[in-house]
Amino acid sequence: MNEILVYWNQFINIMNSGGIIMWVLFALNLLLWYGIGYRYLTLKRGTRGNVRRLIEKHEKRGSEKKYSGLLDYVVADSIQAYKTAQSIGKKPRAFIYDAIFPYIILIGKYSILVKTIVILAPLVGLLGTVAGMIETFDALQSSSMFSQGDSIAGGISKALFTTELGLVVAVPGLIIGKILDKKEEQFILEFEQIVDILSTKDEK
User: Fold this and answer.
1) Which runs of consecutive H residues, i.e. helices, occur in the chain?
2) pLDDT at 95
3) Which pLDDT does position 47 carry in this prediction?
């Protein structure tokens, strides 16, 4: 317990040394990882095999088919939309697109948030460094830094904390965000395949 308190105090001291900007970056970091975590869990495919094979499984097993991921739900809803369109004599493509639309919104959720924080974090960090440098030089000009026993290097070092934290926030967010964007693009392609396969079924 004491060790936890020691680490907690060290964390608070480091955060306070960079001023309010450090806490802003910390809040951005929490938001970033919330967005990444949500997207990671949402973009789980959950099933293997190609789309055509998955549609065949759903048509063969119906409600007995176990759902193991997002694609299963999309296929099931698309088949239901296809059957609805067939029953009223309408073309199925628009019905299937309507059924898929909520999933398109779902897989893109928090994508903008992640991209915005990845761009914003280094800039906020740089702002903190500039503010810290100004304070350092102001203190140097008034000689208060020397009277307090601090060194110029120490002041500059503290000012650079925010830039460092900004990059620590942005770089992993950039890499993981790109990986998740690729998965989102793959889902969009598979959604298009589902629409094409079901819409052209009766044309063969």
Assistant:
1) 2-17, 20-42, 51-61, 70-87, 92-107, 111-141, 144-147, 152-199
2) 92
3) 76
